[in-house]
Amino acid sequence: MSTASTRLPEGRYGRSSDERADRKLKIAGAVLGAALLALVGYFAYHYVGQNRISGEVITFEPHKNSVSVHLEVRKDSGASGYCTVRSQAEDGSEVGRADFRFDGGATRIDKVVTLRTTSPGTTAELLGCHAD
Prior knowledge:
With 132 residues, the chain is α+β, with helices and mostly antiparallel strands. The protein contains one helix and six strands; from the N terminus they run αββββββ. A hairpin with a 5-residue loop joins β3 and β4.
């Protein structure tokens, strides 16, 4: 005995609606994935390729009305720019912020800068460096 098939004959009535939806989802996913990849590539190029000056805080020493900050700055030869440093009090409020300029032909600069504060600061944070 044979049982009756409930499926339609293959290829006779075109594609099912599920196959069409799957195809549209695959296309939409590929387009969105390519757009995301392009966006990440753009931001990576802009951050790495265009940033000609960078720095880091090596150490800091808080005082009563200032904070001494040892900065190490790396930049392209001949590039000029500035680094922004801030200090916060124990309660998290900002007590000082300043921009420090770095010019000249040196590619690596170690410098101790003094950030004046309105009250005793407990931190020294490099917010970023920007080329002119």
